[in-house]
UniProtKB/TrEMBL annotation:
Species classification: Bacteria, Pseudomonadati, Bacteroidota, Sphingobacteriia, Sphingobacteriales
Keyword Protease among record annotations: no
A GO MF term: oxidoreductase activity, acting on the CH-OH group of donors, NAD or NADP as acceptor
Gene3D superfamilies: NAD(P)-binding Rossmann-like Domain
Keyword Oxidoreductase: yes
The entry's keywords: Oxidoreductase
Membrane-spanning parts: none
Protein's UniProt name: SDR family oxidoreductase
Record-stated family: Belongs to the short-chain dehydrogenases/reductases (SDR) family.
Length: 267
């Protein structure tokens, strides 16, 4: 089991306060890593890091601001001296403040350009900048693992029928922004793996499926029916895959896309 040990390693998780981000942090901590809980809220990142244990660090960052990331790099190095693992988890997934307007605003014909641009800024540019700032340090040291969190929707087009309720009414459309940005991340992984392969940096994608989180029952049933395992994921379903990619258990794996989706994309 030493292959899976992260003892003495330092891991940065962006978007660490999200549903899956918290589980990523918990798994890394259990595997022995020093975890940098990186998200936008300083108070909440500090509180969650303290829950994980005294050796962990909460750090407010803006993934779209290179100066913010460079300041974070210096803080992490002053505390731990090294960075071994980067989990690029921060992302925007469309939420509409007014549910009554969700169908209209999420339709491709009406989807706001500013919403599309914001997703590009966080989901793609944010991953680029975090990899540039933190990954460059790894490359200088000659080792490291970068894990980019994508999605099944980075590989297949959204099935809009799962957003229809029991009466067959379309309640929402999955917009272009999320599939476009997650597809970009999968190929960015390949770029980085090829670029930094000779520097000892492994770069892989983890593509999760949908997580059950209080959605309408009709959606849960529609989604579950499309998976081979007959259910949506729970947030902890990705912890094993994350530790595998972060650790020496995947030492000969780079440029790959590890799909953990209950069989959603298998048929």
């Amino acid at each position: 089991m030493e292959l899976f040990s992260l003892k003495g390693k330092t891991a940065i998780v962006t978007g660490a306060l999200g549903l899956i981000g918290r589980k990523h942090c918990e798994a890394l901590a259990l595997a022995g890593a020093n975890v940098v809980v990186a998200d936008t809220n300083a108070e909440k990142t500090a509180a969650f890091a303290a829950q994980l244990g005294a050796q962990h660090l909460g750090l407010p960052i803006d993934v779209t601001d290179k100066a913010s990331l460079e300041a974070a790099l210096q803080t992490v190095l002053a505390r731990y001296e090294n960075i071994d693992i980067l989990v690029n988890n921060a992302a925007i997934n469309d939420m509409f403040e007014n549910p009554a307007m969700a169908k209209e605003l999420s339709a491709f014909e009406n989807y706001p350009l500013e919403a599309f641009q914001k997703s590009l800024d966080v989901n793609v540019t944010g991953v680029f900048l975090c990899s540039q700032v933190f990954g460059s340090h790894m490359a200088q040291n000659g080792s490291g693992s970068i894990i980019n969190i994508a999605s099944t929707y980075g590989m297949v087009g959204p099935d809009q029928t799962i957003y229809r309720n029991e009466c067959g009414e379309q309640t929402f459309y999955k917009s272009a922004a999320y599939p476009v940005t997650k597809g970009a991340i999968i190929n960015f992984t390949r770029f980085l793996a090829a670029y930094w392969g000779d520097k000892g940096i492994r770069v892989n994608t983890l593509s999760p499926g949908g997580v059950e989180n209080g959605q309408n029952e009709f959606f849960i049933q529609n989604y579950s029916a499309k998976t081979l395992l007959g259910r949506m994921a729970v947030a902890s379903d990705y912890q094993g895959a994350l530790i595998f990619l972060a650790s020496d258990a995947s030492a000969y794996m780079t440029g790959a896309n590890l799909v953990v989706d209950g069989g959603w994309t298998a048929i």
